[in-house]
Amino acid sequence: MRKLLILCLFCLGIGFAISNFQGLATKGEFDSLVIDFKENIAATEIDRQLQVLSGQYQLAPRLNSQFSQAEHLYVVKGDRALLDKLRASDLSQDVESIEPNYIYHTTVAPNDPQYSKQWHLHSINAEQAWDENRGKGITVAIIDTGVSQVPDLAQTEFVAGYDFVNDKINADDDNGHGTHVAGTVAQSTNNNYGVAGVAYEAKIMPLKVLSGSGGGTISDIAEAIRFAADNKADVINMSLGGGGESQVMKDAIEYAYNKGVVIIAAAGNENNNSASYPARYARVIGVAATDAQGERAEFSNYGAGVDIAAPGGGHGSKIWQETIDPSTNLPIIVGFQGTSMAAPHVAGVAALIKSTGVTAPAEVFAVLQQSVRKIEQDPQNFYGAGNLDAVAAVKLAQKGKITFNDFFRWLRDNGYLNLRFWIDGGAIALLPKIGMVLGSYLLAFLIRNYLPFGLPLMSGMVAGSSGLFFLKGFYIFDLPQAPFRLLGSSIPELGNAIAGNSILNPVFASVLIPLLLLVVCWSIPQGKWFAVGTSLGVASCLLVSAVIAPNVWLLGDGGIARGFLILNGLLCFGLARFAARGDSQTV
Amino acid sequence: MITVIGGIEHKGFGTGAWALVAEDGTTYELLDCPRDLREVGLHVKVQGTLNDDVMTLAMIGKVLNVNSFEIL
Lengths: 587, 72
What we know:
The complex is a heterodimer of chains A (587) and B (72).
Chain A: H1 2-20, H2 22-25, E1 30-37, H3 43-56, E2 62-63, E3 73-77, H4 80-88, E4 95-102, H5 119-123, H6 126-130, E5 139-144, E6 162-163, H7 177-186, E7 203-208, E8 215-217, H8 218-230, E9 235-238, H9 247-258, E10 262-266, E11 284-290, E12 308-311, E13 319-325, E14 330-336, H10 339-356, H11 361-370, H12 390-398, H13 404-413, H14 419-424, H15 430-446, H16 455-465, H17 482-487, H18 494-497, H19 512-521, H20 525-548, H21 559-582
Parallel strand pairs in A: 5-7, 5-9, 6-7, 9-10, 10-11, 11-12
Antiparallel strand pairs in A: 1-3, 1-4, 2-3, 13-14
Chain B: E1 2-11, E2 17-22, E3 27-29, E4 43-51, E5 54-56, E6 62-71
Parallel strand pairs in B: 3-6
Antiparallel strand pairs in B: 1-2, 1-4, 2-3, 4-6
């Protein structure tokens, strides 16, 4: 059973790795080719070839820039088929290279045609945040005028909500405000339609408490808060406010907060020096509005109760989302302004943070506060902690946690995920090695809360699990190959590296070396994390070996060897967990 | 019951909200505003009660329930 479980974990890990790893999945895009003629070719020959290109292939070759004349560097429009055709033609004799003119971009913008209008998503760095997280698995309750499922929410997941105004299950919008707010949180994105949302893989829970004219009772709102908490909402957005302090409301907020719900509310649009309720309650994150320049919107409340600032329009700028036109009930992409629009930006980022695994409301709030772009001079508390920054928030939330993205980025940066590297490595059993590296990650994932992500830990994991195994394939003429085998071995394999066989030595393939390493390195922080990583790596190597090839010197290749490897693997994991936990407060 | 003298304004929050801006600068939100008051620039005298039990999406000020009004 255990073998099956481990095997499943490995398969899952490998599948996840491949699906997440962009380097292998995408080969780069290009819509033009670069032709680099040889330096010593006569100008007449180049002219002849250019004429062939324009005559035979109907291309319009042009110099890449005014500086390309000396290099004879030309660019033509073309795709993969043309590239192959040109490489096969006699043009190839006259050129140094014909290559795809790859298009580089830092991040990929979503294909929503009106995304360019959404300055507010740019100003919170949403695009870079989406590389890391899009809010999957998180439910955001929209306590508002209801939410209608307009076309640009078609791909957004909904969970059951409630209409507290008319006491019915269906919580459609009859005003347009709630749908707009929901759009900011989770508008369907990359759907070739309309606009984008901050946490577009999050789910929406529509809760209608405001009537079509835009007002609602405190009792309905308090009930909606409790409904959200009882129905597993992770984040509540309240783009509403007014009235006085209310015990009913305060109790409902306390109830939801204690159930782990992050509660966000708009600061209010009175240009007053305190936020309105509910933003002003202690457990609620009050959001002030900023305009396209990042300055306080002229209407935004400030002072007491303002915890953070986010885009809400003002000074002529608007927040663009799809909603319904209440007079026709038809969908419309429209610009609204107000702290109502600022709050859902924060709710969306809170969903991203929660989706990384930081869940306690106090911690989410701390991440939001610490990741803002701070405002130097803010004596009247216009901005609270500062301006919302989605990518900084997500990265801060991930710090101290090893995510798949981080780990594979690290592997890729260190050559491990370069396909050619592996193949050139020679006749090494690749799959077990991949299994060992991934296995060490999966083990680290189990105790992720105690681990700092960093070079020492990752190096340890690779050293313990697989070693620099590609080195095993190095054969340099006349040089002994044993040193390469040694460097290319993981720690458990060291005992048999010099002999050059695959029978594991029971001294090396055990908990002994990680234990010694930990004892020696305990007082050096960097060294200790290397040792913890090594323990995890060795654990993975031993467990994978136990499944695939349990061959241990003196113990044979049967049940005894397998038991020995599993036992030591588990001991290594236990050791890593113990060592990491003992120091968890420094993480 | 309070009496407020001021001008009618329409504030652009969400799909819009009707407001009564008093001579002292205080803004009241006229939720479910009577049809005859829905005209920007009207100078009016309104008698009504402050409603502390509601919250609104406009958040422009206290909600004033209109009992009677007089266009000045």
